[in-house]
Amino acid sequence: MTEHGPLAAIVNHAHHHSPYLRDKYRAAGIDPTSWSDSLFSRIPFTTKDDLRRAYPDGLLAVARSEVAVVHESSGTTGEPTPTYFTEGDIDEWLGRMLLNGVGLTERDVVLVKTPYSMLTTAHQMHGAARRAGATVIPAGSRTELMPFGRVLRLLRDYRATVIYAMPVMLILAARRALETGLDPAQDFPDLRAAVVNGELLSPAKKRFLEELWSIALFPDYGSTETTTLGGACAYGTLHLWSDHFLFEVLDTESGQCSPRGTGELVVTSYHRRAMPIVRYRMGDIVTVTDPTCPCDTGRPEMLVHGRASDAFMVGTRRLFPIDVEDVVYGSLRGCGPVFWSGEVDRDQLTLALESTDRGTAALRQRTDALSTEISARLGMRSRISVVPPGTTMTLDRQPEQEGLLKPVYLHTSAGRGSRV
Ligand SMILES: [Zn+2]
Questions:
Q1: What is the dihedral of CA 251, 257, 262, 266, to 10 degrees?
Q2: Residue 15: pLDDT over 50
Q3: What is the spatial distance between Cα 331 and Cα 325, in angstroms, rounded to a whole number?
Q4: Which of 68, 170, 248, 382 is 20 to 30 A from 146 (CA-CA)?
Q5: The pLDDT of residue 2
Q6: pLDDT band at 420; cut points 50, 70, 90
Q7: pLDDT digits (tens, 9 = 90+) for 78-95
Q8: Which residues surround ligand 1, an ion (CB under 5 A)?
Q9: Ligand 1 center to residue 218 CA distance, Å?
């Protein structure tokens, strides 16, 4: 750390050791060797495009011999976005992962059901659980070796206490359980919690999944480039790990950043060595607020609304797919594992709902109430149909497959899919 504090040290490290960032800062007229407090706010943002342009090692800021692992994020364009970690970087990320309120101990058996291939997600939980002394079941995802029938067997026979998965995986697994005569809320008595990431999670969907499995849900938020940036406390509230990162909220219209408010999340790591994370734009629209949670950790709270490109306007209101999801799952509690997909055309929402055979009758009874809620909370007219099992989401088209990694729930009239 320099005499100017952690931010100066981070920016100097990036400037001295990452050829790509040195050029970028030079082009912007930034000279971090003459540090002033206002300099940081003038440092250009790093974007996902920078990661692509710097491929393969323009952002690398340590000697190759110091790199412990290389990861790449999933990306939808096919262009690789590499990210590097030293042993020290991994040590620090595992410490952050253990801040999650799920509170892993040596008594836990953790089934990891997120991808191990190139992403950091599974490795984060795998390493953190091992460090806590827990037993790990490395099930993984995006592999034909791990159909949901096998996941259910592993959960039961090894008496898993925690599952780490995308929320949609919990719905798919619940459906497979019901198909095989198992009740997810009754027949997995050792399972106490799920840590979920990789998909947004509205408050109503969180409750819905907690009731479906009779467990507590603990969200985790981050990316392969940054690893975990925030997670649930013991009360289930999503907090930012503000002792490890500087978080800024970017007003994309004015270009101004603030520590609180609604806008795009921008992150700077205080610790990262192998690939400095300096003013990295996450692409997610969030609301960051001062903490009011009884956990009293002092860490800010955050709501994640979704990608800016997924927003749609109803009148003068900007809505996100997660707003629709919250209304859907709030109205369909107790209907079993429900999938939904929809289409927005101005103020018209066309929804398809799908459950198991047994849940279909319950869904039909709820459509009027759901329609009323959509009108009251979203200001939209709706057309709702209940579709047979397997129409929108089939187990053999499970989102483990490439391209379906994140399910598309909502399409706008422009035909663009919204990945939630
Ligand atoms: Zn809290």
A1: 100
A2: yes
A3: 10
A4: 68
A5: 54
A6: very low
A7: 688 999 999 999 999 999
A8: 233, 235, 237, 293, 295
A9: 11
How many Å lie between the centroid of ligand 1 and the Cα of residue 300? 9
Q: How far is the CA of 397 from the centre of ligand 1 (A)?
A: 37
pLDDT of residue 288: 98
Here the tokens at position 105 are 């101990």
Q: What's the CATH architecture for 311-419?
A: 2-Layer Sandwich (3.30)
**DSSP assignment, residue 45?**
P
Helix, strand, coil shares of the chain, percent, nearest 5, are: 30, 30, 40
153: part of which helix (H) or strand (E)? helix 148-157
Using the mean position of ligand 1's atoms as its centre, give its distance from the Cα of residue 216 in Å: 14
Provide the percentage of residues in the chain whose pLDDT is more than 90: 78
> DSSP letter at 64?
G
Distance 222 CA to ligand 1 centre (A): 17
- pLDDT above 70 (res 232): yes
Cα 296 to averaged position of ligand 1 atoms, centre (Å): 6
Asked whether the predicted pLDDT for residue 200 surpasses 80, the reply is yes
Q: Which amino acid is at 320?
A: F
Own/partner contacts of 84-91, CB < 8 Å, gap of 24 or more, are 84/57, 84/59, 84/60, 84/274, 84/275, 85/274, 85/275, 86/62, 86/273, 86/274, 88/271, 88/273, 89/271, 89/272, 89/273, 89/274, 90/127
Residue 415 confidence (pLDDT) above 60? no
d(CA 177, CA 378): 33
Give the per-residue pLDDT at 76: 57
CA 247–ligand 1 middle distance (angstroms): 17
Span from the CA of 361 to the centroid of ligand 1 (angstroms): 38
Closest CA to 46 of 264, 246, 268: 268
For residues 257-286, average pLDDT: 97
Q: Which pLDDT belongs to residue 371? A: 97
- Spacing, Cα 161 to ligand 1 middle (Å): 22
The residue count of the chain comes to 420
Distance 288 CA to ligand 1 centre (A): 13
For residue 27, report the distance from its CA to the centre of ligand 1, in Å. 42
Share of residues in the chain with pLDDT > 70 (%) = 93
Q: For residue 291, report the distance from its CA to the centre of ligand 1, in Å.
A: 8
The string of DSSP codes covering 47-81 is -HHHHHHTTTTTT--S-GGGEEEEEE---SSS---
pLDDT value for 144: 77
Residue 322 Cα, ligand 1 centroid: separation in angstroms? Answer: 22
